[in-house]
Amino acid sequence: MKVSLEQARSLLKSFAGMKGSFPFRLGTTSYIYPGEIVPNVELLGDFLDEIQLLLFEGNTISNIPDASTIRYLNELAESKNITYSVHLPLDAYPGHENESFRRDSVAMIQRIYEVGVRLRCKHFVFHYASRNPEGTPFKDLQKWRDQLCKSTEELLESGIVPQSLCVENLAYPFSWVADLVDRYGLAKCIDIGHLRVNHFPVKNHLNKHLRETKIIHLHGLKKGIDHNGLSPKDRRSTHQLMEKMDEIKYSETLILEVFQLDHLLESLKTFKRFWNKWETQKLYS
């Protein structure tokens, strides 16, 4: 969907009433509109409670905001009454069997964490990645866990607050790392789409982990591909999520983790419909 910023704002206006209307913060990612972080925050901050910033740095390209941009983003947060969280880089490998890769990943996470602190972020989505940069899985599970322990201890020793790191469920069983999350007092990020696309039971995972979860990622599946707009086909898992959120009075953050304006519009429309139906059902139950 190619539209101007003003056209995008006009399309989002019908969802303006959703900001601040849930018992939790409703947010999305900083890559809805093609371009930099700032125009996305300027656009989305009027309609949502939280923006999840996807930060990365590489040898040739980086989107780490400089000091003046950080000041402006903080001004926007105050004026629009929004909060930020950070999704730590996808190319960080805290469990890599190669020490050089592992140390570089720890250093990268520490640098971006500091940026997030200056943006007053309380929570950071953290991947215990189980694959190397080429996409093949690490072969030695125990070695991988040992490396994860080493990296986590180094991060916490550097001053990172344990409850700020939200370990996200990925393509492997979360039971592989759940004891490490508990051991180090970390928080959790539940990604409903990851559970579904990898055929892990959503309800079972929610029952086990939602209470320690600071961030939920919600997105739709279409033809087996996640991070699509939420649609009526995603009703069952979303209903299971709402049921458990209501049971424990969840009050943290739910991120519609999509990366296109049309996917966000579809997600907002569907989520609003699901939520209204859920609230109506509660009234008559």
**Largest sheet: spatial strand order:** 1-2-3-4-5-6-7-10
Approximately how much helix is present in the residues? 40-55%
Q: What Rg do the Cα atoms give? A: 19 Å
Listing every helix as H and every strand as E from the N terminus to the C terminus, the arrangement reads: HEHEHEHEHEHEHHEEEHEH
Oligomer: single chain
Overall shape: it is globular
Strand content: 15-25%
Number of beta strands:
10
Q: Strand count, sense and closure of the main sheet?
A: 8 strands, parallel, barrel
At a glance:
The protein is an alpha/beta fold and 285 residues long. The chain contains 10 helices and 10 strands.
Written overview of the protein:
The chain is α/β, with parallel strands linked by helices. The chain contains ten helices and ten strands. The chain is globular.
Please give a handful of descriptors for the protein shown.
285 residues; alpha/beta; 15% strand
Helices and strands, with pairings:
Blueprint: H1 5-12, E1 25-29, H2 37-44, E2 50-54, H3 67-80, E3 83-87, H4 99-118, E4 124-126, H5 141-157, E5 165-168, H6 178-183, E6 187-191, H7 192-197, H8 202-209, E7 213-218, E8 220-222, E9 225-228, H9 235-248, E10 253-256, H10 261-283
Parallel strand pairs: 1-2, 1-10, 2-3, 3-4, 4-5, 5-6, 6-7, 7-10
Antiparallel strand pairs: 8-9
